[in-house]
Amino acid sequence: MRLSQLVLGPVLLLGLAVPHAVQAGPHGTLSHHRYTEPGGLTREYLQYVPAGLPAGRPLVVFLHGCNETATEAMAATRFNALADKERFAVVYPEQVRAANSSAPAADGNGIGCWNWFLPDDQARGAGEPAVLAGIARSATRALRADRHRVYVGGISAGADMTVILAATYPDVFAAAASLAGCAYQTCGDLTGRLAYEQMGTRARLVPMLVENGTADVLNPAPQSVGLAQSWLGLGDLVDDGTANGSFSRTPATQDTSVPSGSPSPGGGDACVHNNSFLCLGGILGLSDYPVTRTTWHDAKGRDVVELWLVHGLAHAHPHAPGDGSYTDPLGPDVTAASYRFFLQHRLP
Hints:
The protein has helices at residues 70-77, 79-86, 127-143, 157-168, 193-199, 221-240, 280-283, 334-342, and strands spanning 17-24, 28-36, 42-50, 59-63, 89-94, 150-155, 175-179, 208-213, 253-257, 291-297, 303-310. The chain is an alpha/beta fold. It has one domain (3-342): 3-Layer(aba) Sandwich (Rossmann fold). It has an eleven-stranded mixed beta sheet, sandwiched between helices. The radius of gyration is 19 Å and the shape is globular. The two termini are 38 Å apart. The model is unreliable at 1-14 and 261-278 (pLDDT under 50).
């Protein structure tokens, strides 16, 4: 059920989230909320809390893609099952959808994309970044979650908004995960300087896991490679304010896993033809797609940027059950990988 189909609750006080439906299950509680930020923008979200979750646990915010609902993203990522196991809470904000094609982009742009491409939604203090950061803060207070361990991730348009949140609210989100996304400011921040300038006095290298399929034609993998390079540039600027090569661009680790029965990338992309067509291993339903994982460390040896290239994966949630919006049962468990990456990092 979409959040927009639910009966809405009472009028909100600005800056507060109000639950208007609760479903309790054997493992946890799923509730529906609405949040209005002080500027008046409202968004709804799902919130999942495992049974008996104590205070002081992490919180994950996950943003869906275009033509996808919060409910579908919840099913595709399987974050709730991981939350039960690892003991953390999850919220899934949902973009509104324009009732007709003449409605302004701020009302949902017709297909439920986060407005990552609009300048008004790329800065701190207003628009969707403000309401999404407000949701994170409100849920953190309500659940008494650990404010030093609030994380954000998303896919496609949700990945692009994730990057915006990392750049605009580095004091709220301890780490981030971009699945099939691109660099800050409509993929244009190739050096990291725009993100650095947006952060201002709050500037810090928000640790980032980046994932993309090499057969993705909607968000081609080079855009995610560009995001990783941009974020390394941000690290170079954050440490001393100057782009002087003080942050190493040399990977700390790089490895390619090739499941049995799948073709090897062999240093190139032999699994994919012209970066457009699924590799034979995926078409034949073999064990999995090969994955190349590259990591970069900061001066203290901490893993702060990870790039996962899934050879043969199209524009989809990898390792996702069912037949929801762009799901693929093959590929790595990026949900578990993201959470493992998150747990390495806390807000300073």
